[in-house]
Amino acid sequence: MTSARISQRIGSIAESATLAVDAKAKALKAAGRPVIGFGAGEPDFPTPQYIVDAAIEAARQPKYHRYSPAAGLPELREAIAAKTLRDSGYEAAASQVLVTNGGKQAVYNTFATLLDPGDEVLLPTPYWTTYPEAIRLAGGVPVEVFAGPEQGYLVTVDQLEAALTERTKILLFVSPSNPTGAVYSPEQVAEIGRWAASKGLWVVTDEIYEHLTYDGVPFTSIATAAPELGDKVVILNGVAKTYAMTGWRVGWMVGPADVIKAATNLQSHATSNVANVSQMAALAAVSGPLDAVREMKAAFDRRRQTMVKMLSEIDGVNCPTPKGAFYVYPDVRGLLGKEIAGVRPATSAELAALILDKVEVAIVPGEAFGPSGFVRLSYALGDADLAEGVGRIQELLGTAK
Known about the structure:
This protein has helices spanning 8-11, 17-30, 49-59, 74-88, 102-114, 130-137, 157-163, 186-198, 222-225, 257-270, 276-287, 291-312, 348-359, 383-397, and strands at residues 36-37, 97-100, 120-125, 141-146, 168-174, 202-206, 233-238, 251-254, 327-328, 361-362, 364-365, 375-378. With 401 residues, the chain is α/β, with parallel strands linked by helices. A 7-stranded mixed β-sheet has the order 2-8-7-6-5-3-4, sandwiched between helices. The chain has a 3-stranded antiparallel β-sheet with strand order 9-12-11. The mean pLDDT is 95.
């Protein structure tokens, strides 16, 4: 009897679609092709200088060359607790904070800590590509609850109620959303939170895009909007998007002390502490001013409007205006089956492949985030590249017949 070389558990995980598209775009660019990539959610700005300076200073100090507590440097945990109170209105002690290697480890740690095999997680869809894989890896079952553009990509309590079963343990709540940029109103957030509390569910909320909302739309933390949740809420966050620090790999989870203790035990065996130099950079970020964030947000807002306008000019494309994050999520179902450059793409994956092949622009198909028929484009890239890339898409898709 021969056993498989790769375990079933790991073999069933799909590669991150967004990172795969980004890697392909970068490889083509390195080969000299004029590829423009809308794949990765990565600000094109450098990390603010005061944060870099803090890291350089930390690197010079021998104490940061050593192991540190698995849960994070005490001063960073304190600062994250203070920042969470400032931005989310949610009060937590430093002992309720676990510093993780990027937001993805916070996501996995949380599901691994809360889920037993067969437990279900309500997953508003379209979803960020990593969520269902992390849920499955932790033994859980993702239950997709789809909200299309006709309802602003926002799920309703009625939809969540219809998906509820006796195995449901967690509601995953994300606002502003990746991939759609949708933002729930304060009233919607409170209603969903109260509903989850009434069902005895945990709520895991990813707040990494909290500072990126537009058109006067507020960010609302479900942990604060629905105090009925009590100690059955876990907040996920990180420095990557707000401070242009994707490569520094610092995220965190904020939650009840018993959950944080258990997740810390897991992390102590998986990775131990986050790199101390990165932690000190994160300390400078979360305890510093938000000036650089405001500058980036102004640029994102400008690019958002340009991208929505240009995509909306294409026949067969319906592009809702996102209210947060830095993505647009156009509905391209009106183009599927039409002839474009001699090809009839039947899915958004085929359409994305055609766009990369014909005009060398990389976008992520909706299959990475839920149903086919949609595509995601990040507008966290330079203005000139954005206009050039969307212009190429316009030219190609304008030939559809």
